[in-house]
Amino acid sequence: MEGLFIFILGLAIGSFLNVLIFRLPENKSILGFSRCRNCKERISWHDNIPVLSFLFLKGRCRSCKTKISWQYSLIELLTAFLFLFSFLTYRGNPLFLIYTLFLIGLFIVIAVIDLKHLIILDSLVLAGFIVSLSYFMLSAFYFVDSLYGLLFFAGMFLFIFLMSKGKWIGFGDVKLAAMLGFIFGLESSVSIFYLTFSVGFIYAIMLLTLKKADLKTEVPLGSLMSIVSIFFLLTGFDLFELINAELILRLWIN
User: Fold this and answer.
1) C-beta neighbour count of 111 within 10 angstroms
2) The dihedral sign for the CA sequence 94, 15, 46, 58
3) pLDDT digits (tens, 9 = 90+) for 159-184
4) Whose C-alpha in 18, 56, 220, 223 is 20 to 30 A from the C-alpha of 179?
């Protein structure tokens, strides 16, 4: 029953994340009733039930019959499944579980907005800093590691930003890297940095191969960092353990 509750909660939170994703980049209030983006008709509560309403309405607005974006249901289901996985992984630590659920929601919003608009909003980065600082204070976290992580991650991205004069990455990526470094600490930041650029390289090669991009195409690095951060948050991937395991294996074979 607890797992079902978390899944339903994830659906509801996913619906709210969609509100943030659509309204924040347009500087619209996140309060107020939902409306059709085409006819502006107010959406009734029974047409706003996560996933179910989309299926019942066959993916179209009740008033103007315009197709409803599949993004709504996708974000709702993704959030629900990630919430459920988080619950099954961290249910023994309620405070960290709540913090993890917040971070997952935050990373989803950052990832989708950057993918759609190639921007990283300061308000989201600031929210990540404030909530993380509050969590660290409640859990008596060792702040020095967070500061080292911030300096490393932000420093690496700032170096790339300055070296390329802002052509390779945006300053929003630098601020997001600072937040991630603060959240995950030094050692974990190294792993996330490595994974981000590894995934980014593979993603760029795929786009070039499929002729969906060229060498001037901007890569949503904030989206990649957010996705990698969710993966890291739920799996605890450790680059150093992987390196050590490989070294041990080579020594054993030799």
Assistant:
1) 22
2) negative
3) 999 998 888 888 999 999 999 999 99
4) 18
The span from the CA of 65 to the CA of 84, in Å, is 33
What are the residues whose beta carbons fall under 8 Å from the beta carbon of 33, sequence distance 6 or more?
42, 43
Q: In this structure, which amino acid lies at residue 157?
A: F
Helix axes 2-23, 94-117, angle to 10 degrees: 30
Q: Do residues 21 and 113 touch, judged by C-beta distance below 8 A?
A: yes
Structure tokens that stand for 102 in this block? 């917040």
Residues making up the chain, counted from first to last: 254
Record the tokens describing residue 148, joined without a space.
């080292």
d(CA 198, CA 196): 5
pLDDT, tens only, 20-77: 999 999 888 887 777 777 777 777 767 678 888 878 877 787 778 778 788 889 999 9
